[in-house]
Write a structure and sequence with these properties.
This protein has 10 helices and 9 strands. The chain is α+β, with helices and mostly antiparallel strands. The two termini are 37 Å apart. It comes from Hymenobacter defluvii.
Length: 258
Amino acid sequence: MTYIGKNIRKIRTVKKLSQAAFADLFGLARPSVGAYEEGRSEPKMETLIQIAQHFGLSVDLLLTKELTVNELYNFDIFQEALKEAPVEEAASEADRQALLTPLVPARRILEYIVNYHDKSFIDGLQPLTFPHTLGLVTRAFEISGADMQPTLRHQDVVLCCRVDKAVPVLHVGRLYAFVTQSRLLVRRLAERLPNDVLKLRADNRDYPAQDFALSQALEIWEIKAQFTTHLHTPTLLEDRVQVLERQVEELLARTEGS
């Protein structure tokens, strides 16, 4: 589960925004905000990124931690103090840039293929801030399609670190994103074959395995983390635990009433 719905409600409380005012900020319908807060649906990753950037929060913070009102107030105070701090007291530009990960949306992947080596293009991509120790060169790619389900779903975002194409260190069983002349290919490495050929598999069994020559790759990225807005269906064990919890609550209520 994620905490985005509860965090949206608390952000509105801190900012004194109505659901309608919050919806206007991000081009949403007012009922959509209510559905987010009640856990009936979750925003698309693009909307989630807009919310995070607008309020100066990280995407992972919105998804993985239920923020308290006090924390949000404190964060706002910190942000205001940072804006007013002298240049020498603020973090250096290099330090800040090292924490940024350019995001490549699915709709811009062909544009990325043409300009992947152009620093000005990369600098113009929407930057995300993720807590990681993956080094200075990272990318975030939006997944398109169902070929890696159930591991990765449509519109999930994956955080990647660069693999040196000259001396690629690749591990069987891990997920990689290969930038080719025509597409972004996300697959699991099944086997390394002779002559720099890889056997790649999709996690969706409806897609066949394929041989892939390393020479086809413009870039190679190892996938280290994923960020999703898809709610996971409870497992059978979770269902049983919920039933037991309800039964215990009913027994306690009867005992208290007797």
